[in-house]
Amino acid sequence: MSTADTAFATALRLHRAGCWAQAVAVYDRLLGDPRLDPVQAAQAYANRGAALRRIGRADEAAASCIEALVRCPELAEAYANIGAILQEADHPLAALDACRRAIALSPGLYTPYLAMAHARQDRGDHAAALALLRRAATLAPATPSVRYNLAEALLQHGLFEEGWRVYESRWQARELALTRPVCTNPEWTDQDLTGKTLLVVEEQGFGDTLQFIRLIPLVKARGARRVILHCRAPLVRLLAGVEGVDAVTTALPDAVAYDLWVPLMSLMQRLAVAPDRIPAAMPYLAPPPDAVTRWSGALPETDGLRVGLVWAGDPRLGHAAASRTDARRSLALTQLAPLLTVPGVCWVSLQKGPAAAQLDGMAIHDPMPGVADFADTAAIVRQLDLVIGVDTAVVHLAGALGVPVWVLSRFSGCWRWLLDRDDSPWYPTLRLFRQQHPGDWAPVVGRVREELLRRVRLPRHDRGPA
């Protein structure tokens, strides 16, 4: 094997392992070799572009793919990469064109179908997106990224049985960067739980945990003697009070402490929960007494509505895919200015993180600097008449507490909110205000303002849950 072949194989191995920055470094060294033949150089440039895209360097990624096409104009992989780059840059029509070219050159290549599916979702054509993802899965049935994206589309369409089964591929989908828990004892798939201790391990975002913790009582009803919950520290005090949870820990316990374990978000599949059987008895969360005592009387007195506000998520700056999603779901506080002019509202910030700095000079009460964890936030939220927010953990918390919550949802919304509805089977008190056009928040804010004006005018006893 030549030196170039060895370097190419090394870069490809790193690429497939998700070590994209290291792969780029090897591709750079490889492309500096003047002896590299044009076909291999074209493939290296295309692969380099794909790796650069994964680490958020979109302009360099596009330039690298163009270099590939200069050397090999019929290289389908380069067109597929350009399609993915254009889709992520919010140019869905151009992305579709690039992907069609890739498919024409190589009909058996799965990557353009994946990018086309995302572009179709960006255009609101979810049926076409699902069909494209099924085609990608036919071409690459063992590819985790394809299976994971198919799973989310299936769930968004309410196809829970197939969707949750395919969702088990999430651990291998490198764009999620999930680490599967390392537990010594067997995983619970459907074994008899009678008299057993089950370890439930949380995963992904705080909102995911708050949403799916409702399933613990169903597990306990299967006969489990004890349920131990593993979660991060900010959730411990709040989740210790969940029905069916016997113990909470921030460290994975020794094998002698439990018999079986299960990832929290696998419970939907293991329990075979259908869309019309989602446990929706509210509230299923409650702040602990010490948090209630601490925050009692901490909010301003008002004769009007107390409304909580959260306008941005975690920017996840070190994670390119998550950062793009956050940019689509989050707003600047100034974009919500029309809401702040509604009379009879006492505004309470529920915002944490860098976006909280936008509060400077605003007439919004901000208790969050004193908040230590979700138990504190829950004690504040329970004192509110309404929460208005983008799709973050706070709206899940409000829903789980049974507090009315209005969610401002991006155009290509999260799978959990399903399609073509403004309510949610997950939370009876939740109402969705969806974008009608990608990135266009002004009409959404306008609709929320009109509803808020109507709600303020109602007598307090007539305001209802949402």
Automatic annotation (TrEMBL):
Keywords, in A-Z order: Plasmid, Transferase
GO molecular function: transferase activity
Entry superkingdom: Bacteria
SMART domains linked: TPR (SM00028)
Gene3D superfamilies recorded: Glycogen Phosphorylase B (3.40.50.2000), Tetratricopeptide repeat domain (1.25.40.10)
Listed transmembrane segments: none
Protein name as annotated: Glycosyltransferase family protein
High-level lineage: Bacteria, Pseudomonadati, Pseudomonadota, Alphaproteobacteria, Rhodospirillales
